[in-house]
Here is the input.
Amino acid sequence: MILHLQLESANQYMGSMEEPSPETNYTKPLGIRFIEYIKRSNISYKTHQVIVLIVTFIAYASYHAARKTTSVVKSTLDPASDEVSLNSLPWRRRPFSWILGDGWAPFDGSDGTVLLGEIDVAFLAVYAIGMYFSGHLGDRINLRIFLTIGMVGTGVFTSLFGIGYWGSIHSFYYYLAVQMLAGLFQSTGWPSVVAVVGNWFGKKKRGLIMGIWNAHTSVGNITGSLVASALLQYGWGWSFVVPGLMIATIGLVVFLFLPVTPESVGVSEEDESDSPKKSGAEVTAPLLISSRAEVKDQPVGFIEAWKIPGVAPFALCLFFSKLVAYTFLYWLPFYISHIAAIDGQYLSDAAAGNLSTLFDVGGVLGGILAGHISDRLDARAITAASFMYCAIPALFFYRSYGSISLTANVILMFITGMFVNGPYALITTAVSADLGTHSSLRGNSRALATVTAIIDGTGSVGAAIGPLLTGYISAKSWSAVFTMLMGAALIAGLLLTRLVVAEVTAKIEESRSRRGSTSRSQPAVIDV
Here is the structure.
């Protein structure tokens, strides 16, 4: 009998060796090994968390820096496009036009704005579709390697767009194909970084932590704008090649230093109070431990992830939220330099690119505020909906009064960025991580990338449609563009109505129960 049990135990052990879980199959990154060799001691759990935050922050900032260059170079490729919308208004020739010429074929014609809009939508459409597949793959393979491949690929195709400058390439389909492939590789980024951060941080203060961490989006946009604007005077090709080389280099840093999970680097999280196992909502009772071990190795299916409560409303909300945010991302420098004559003067392409960074600065504050407020209220939907409703008057005032003076433009742009990017940052970070570790998953931590991909992938469809519609609508009226953006913000808020009502109801019931407990209890400390 004893021999039989020993043989059975040995068979189970050998079975586990033959079919290891994806997490235990990982090895420590070479950079982590090198640090531990220099220190001659193992790195603590907290230190790993710091490394994760820093590496993923820089990684996704580089994604956005590479993505932002198109909006800055757009007005250089199509300098005459202002004549399409305002054919009766004169504008000053750019100070560096003797280097860049009068645009770049095929974007320098009367349909240049439309062609640029089509390239934007092609990039974002492939990005959105690729997001769903990236999330599916991200829950099944090594995220560190997956992210590295995505970053190097993004760098290659971003650089190839710029090489068209030196190669005198004027084929629309070349730039279209390059941008589509760049979008495919870009789709690997967001599901990967959110999944890794979610593996290391529990729900406690997740909104604030991820709100601060999500500043990488705005930091990347700002960096991309400043780098692309500074390099324009040397030729627009450099505005693509340099950010491309940057993200490829940072991809190698990710490969060397990014620890995907605590298990992958042999760190014990049982003694850490802020680990997902202790502070996350997914583990709530000892009875769930055995089921967690069984479910953990089973990635969540696409349809099953859609059925998680809250995923569909937040995904659809993000559709309209990103429609607004990405319209600004791709068209704000163009709008400032061609349409909005600030104090009666049009800014140069470089100056417009630099000024547009204030929208992202406002977005940094908005993301942090949204995360902090949602943590304090424990109400993600209320916070996101409130910000979207506040974005409506902000958009109206920026369109109506942003041209009065440079000061007015700066203030209104900052406020608009805060309210537009606040809910966008909240939904794509804390909300995605919350839903990816929802209690209905019975502790399955391998749904993070899939849920993140569904939410951000759906949002990216809106991100593709916004710039495309702007390319067509702006040729007739920029006031109509802003009307479209205000309508999108309204719909985004309304889509969360059911969740907002549920959160308000829960708050009311909680308040009543607390008052009832206080009136019935003796003077004592009440544990809530």
About this structure: Residues 5-10, 12-26, 81-101, 277-297 have pLDDT under 50 and may be disordered. The radius of gyration is 25 Å. The longest helix spans residues 45-77. Residues 159 and 242 are 7 Å apart (CA to CA).
